[in-house]
Amino acid sequence: xxxxxxxxxxxxxxxVDLVDGGAGAGTLVVRTGSAPTNTTDAxxxxxxxxxxxxxxAFGSASxxxxxxxxxxxxxxxxxxxxxxxxxxxxxxxVVIMQGTAGASAELSxxxxxxxxxxxxxxxxxxxxxxxxxxxx
Length: 136
Prior knowledge:
The chain is mostly beta strands. The protein has one domain (5-121). The chain is 9% helix and 28% strand. It has one helix spanning 5-16, and strands spanning 27-32, 47-53, 65-67, 71-72, 83-89, 95-102, 107-108, 129-131. It has a six-stranded mixed sheet with strand order 4-2-1-5-6-7, with no helix packed on it. A two-stranded antiparallel sheet has the order 3-8. The protein is globular.
């Protein structure tokens, strides 16, 4: 099955709009190790950093791709460790999506020191986009 660009964009908007759910801005957290199997599973790994989305978190999707509005970085990383995964949550801490994080991952993090984020350092997210596959 293939879906149109209009349908891809509507589906993508449906997902990213969930980040705005609740009474405030959503967050993006970076943790060590592998992501839990399911988004409903408890967090795994050590919390390294928490970044906060603008409200709204994403602009309208175009051709199935939504780009995040500005994301406030973490000016004091919580712990030293190697990024392994990230989770995007709404303001009620419900996980909306998750993926890999690191130097060459779904969430690409530059400026790592020996592969690690360093406690007390900063993490800035320069861009983030979500793509709805076309089904082709």
